[in-house]
Structure formats: C-alpha cells, structure tokens
Predict the structure.
Amino acid sequence: MAKKLSVVPNFYMSEAYFDYARLIEHSDKDRVWVEGNGWCVFPPLPYPIDFDENIWCDMGGLCPPDWYQKKELDWEYIFDPWDFNDMTGGKWNTFRKNVRKWPRGNPNHAYLSELLDNLSAEHLMGEWLEERMESAQDADIMIKMALDHHPNVRHMYLYRGRELVGINVFDWNYRYINYRLCIVKPGERFLDEYLRFLFYTNSDILLSGMLVNDGGTLGREGLERFKDKMNPKIKRKRYSWIKKEL
Amino acid sequence: MGGKSRKSGGVSKGLIQRLKSGNYKSLKKDETKDTTTDDMPGLDLFGDGEEAECGS
C-alpha cells in the first residue's frame, strides 16, 4: 500500500521487521494499519481524516491533522553507497582516515557471506550487547535479526583469521536497503568504521542502485556525530503523533 | 539496531550469558532455508554460488 501511494517508508517498514517485532496488519474496506505493543505503529493508509489513535512512527509525505502533536522519535539517516566508493573531498577526511586504521593492523581478514560456525556469532552478539546492557533497544529483535534466518534478511561476516569479529545485517523494503546492525567485537578501535565501509562498498549493495536507510541515533549524541561524519544524503526527523490533551 | 523501541530498553545479564556461552537457541541454516526469497528489486542478492568478497 505504501508503495502504491508513493509514501516514503521508514526504517521499520520491512517484512523482516514486521515478522520479528510481531506486528499485526489489519485492514478494512477503506484502509490498512499495523499494530504492535499496544500502538498503531504507522499512520493507516490511505491516511483517513477521522483517525485519532496515537501513532508511533510517521512516514515521509504525511502531515498530522490538527488534533495531534508531533513528538520527536528519532533521526533517520539515508546514505548513498556510491559516496563510500568515492570518499573524495575534505568532508570525507575523518572517515576516510579512520577506515584505513583497522585493516592496516589486521591484514589477515576476510569479509564473507557464510558463517563458519553458529556459536561464534552468538558469542559475539553477547559481547556486543554486554556493552549496551542499559541502552539496548529491542534486544530481542536485534538477536533474531543477527542470529536467525529470514528470507528477507542478509548477513555478512568479518573474520580475522578464523575469529569472527564483525557482523553486518540488512534487509530491505520497496525503496531502501535497511542497514539493521553493525556488530563489532568490543575493544577493537576503528573496526566499526571499517565494517560500515565494507557494508556500503560491497558490490551487491552498490549495484542494487538503492539508497540505504541507516536508522537513527537512539538519542545518543556520539552516534549522531559518528553518522554525521559519514555525510548522509538525507538526515530527517521521524515523529510520533500523539493526541492533544483537550 | 539503530531504531527505537516501543518497549522499555535494556537486556538481561542472563540472556547475555546464554549468548556468550553459546546456549542461545540459534536456528540451523539447513533446517530453515526458505526458497521463497523475496529478491531485492532488480537484483538477486547473494544468490547461490555467490563468491565471498575479500575485505583485504
């Protein structure tokens, strides 16, 4: 329906996210809407003028009626993979320099589409989440995205020798590739930059011709500065629509 | 995940320990392989026989 109406999808609009977050799609003769965790997750489509339930995350091209107030939910970053293939000009100085550091110290690495053993992925996921014990959001969905197999989710693995040190996870909707997870072994300086670089410059990502939705910042200023240095094509706010108190 | 949650955040120590010790119930690829892959528009991404890409 979003595609049909030319609505720009947000980070949460993909089959894999719907499945893992157990979102339930409803429809009647006039509209389609999605529910999860007690929320109407997106504005119903086509957007009905009489709808007044709280809405968790809006989409591009829709404005709320008067009876809602917009509450900031998160940023949403859109990147062009070809920018990472070029990385020319002063605005790329910092990222370009940082991307080279991890591979220089770890020449024996390989970026593979196959996982050599399941336990190493579980262990790495555990180490990575341990660093985010208080702040992790949707840990259950993240674990499923990283470790389970879904027809619309792809994984790429970074090995140093036979040691798994990074996992990239992505899925897609009709408009964007969604970069879901960049999981790195804790304590490896500049590995995060390098793994992201590998993701964006993978030939399949480049040749898809699609832009990448890299999600938001979860209110973390450090993550916002980090993503800003990667020169987003689009940086936009996503809002919840909350009913005004009368 | 780079995305916000509709629930409260955080993750339990127990779950982390299960993951780190390899006791999390992970699915085995061969048991769950789904042949109904919904390809990305215009591209058969990582189709069968795809070469692994070297990062170095």
User: Anything to note?
Assistant: The first strand of chain A starts at residue 24 and ends at 27.
